[in-house]
Design brief:
By secondary structure, this protein is of the alpha/beta class. The chain is 41% helix and 28% strand.
Length: 109
Amino acid sequence: MAIIEVDDESFKEELNSAFEKKSTVVLKFGSEYCEPCHALETELEELDEELENVTILMIDTDEYPELTEEYDVFQLPTMVIYDVNQQIIYNKEGIILAKDITKIIQNSI
């Protein structure tokens, strides 16, 4: 699994690469100035250690407003999860524990 910070240019490339590998993809929208975003990032780091075949893409909403708008992100943090079939299985704001993210992913397999 990998945690990758993306920008407008690398986002589509990394997303498509993960889809080609049949990887589950987690998008984390956050900001450097958002404390709950840092808490969610800690949970995603734990997830990164526990699961294989998951790619985590981190998007800084302050730096890349186009991606933020494309995904209709209005609150931070927001997390979107795609399953291996490229279907969105989760799209919510707020902090979620690594164990709950794991359950969401495992239930989609």
